[in-house]
């Protein structure tokens, strides 16, 4: 459990670093795209689109959709994440699996 917690913390830190650095470029508007399950009043509630990227946004000036799937360690895309990537690219958006801030900056550069 401790390893999963460390990986989760590392992932959250990288997501936040990418959000900050992409926002500084002035070339896009991005936001965190949370997905998962939460318990409320004894019931489990799903939220977000399963497989969608950790960060999504709009590339200026033409409004192109961008999606950043953040991975740390040796984590790999799930089948749902691969399908989301295919959908984004098929519709003219940009998608990248990013293991660093540099990877994300390359997506919008």
Topology at a glance:
Layout: H1 2-25, E1 28-32, E2 36-40, E3 43-47, E4 55-59, E5 64-70, H2 79-90, E6 94-98, H3 101-108
Parallel strand pairs: 5-6
Antiparallel strand pairs: 1-4, 2-3, 4-5
Helix pairs in contact: 1-3
Brief overview, please?
With 109 residues, the chain is α+β, with helices and mostly antiparallel strands. 40% of the residues lie in helices and 29% in strands.
Your description of this structure?
The chain is of the alpha+beta class. The chain has one domain: Trna Endonuclease, Chain: A, domain 1. 40% of the residues lie in helices and 29% in strands. The chain has helices at 2-25, 79-90, 101-108; strands at residues 28-32, 36-40, 43-47, 55-59, 64-70, 94-98. The strands form two sheets. It has a four-stranded mixed sheet, sandwiched between helices. A two-stranded antiparallel sheet has the order 2-3. A hairpin with a 4-residue loop joins strand 4 and strand 5 (64-70). The chain is globular.
């Amino acid at each position: 459990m401790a390893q999963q917690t460390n990986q989760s913390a590392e992932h959250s830190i990288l997501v936040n670093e990418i959000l900050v650095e992409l926002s500084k470029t002035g070339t896009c508007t991005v936001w965190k795209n949370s997905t998962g399950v939460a318990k409320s009043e004894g019931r489990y509630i799903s939220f977000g689109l399963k497989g969608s990227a950790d960060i999504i946004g709009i590339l200026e000036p033409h409004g192109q959709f961008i999606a950043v799937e953040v991975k740390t360690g040796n984590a790999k895309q799930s089948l749902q994440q691969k399908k989301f990537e295919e959908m984004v690219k098929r519709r003219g958006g940009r998608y990248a699996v990013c293991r660093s801030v540099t990877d994300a900056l390359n997506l919008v550069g």
